[in-house]
Specification:
Distance between the termini: 14 Å
Largest sheet: none
Radius of gyration: 12 Å
Structural class: mainly alpha
Number of domains: 1
Helix content: 10-25%
Order of helices and strands: HH
Number of strands: 0
Shape: globular
Number of helices: 2
C-alpha cells in the first residue's frame, strides 16, 4: 500500500516554471505562498 505523502493532494497547471532554489530543487515555501488558498479552492486528488 502506498504512503499518503507519495501521492499529490492537488494538481496545479502553470504556464511558467516552478520556483527553484539555487541548487535546482523546487522552492516549496515560495510555491505555497503563491497559492495560500489551494486546499479550499481545489478538489483533493486522493
Amino acid at each position: 500500500m502506498p504512503v499518503n505523502d507519495t501521492v499529490p493532494r492537488h494538481v496545479v497547471v502553470r504556464d511558467e516554471p516552478l520556483p527553484r532554489l539555487p541548487g535546482g530543487t523546487i522552492a516549496e515555501p515560495a510555491f505555497r505562498a503563491e497559492h495560500p488558498d489551494l486546499p479550499s479552492t481545489h478538489e483533493k486528488m486522493r
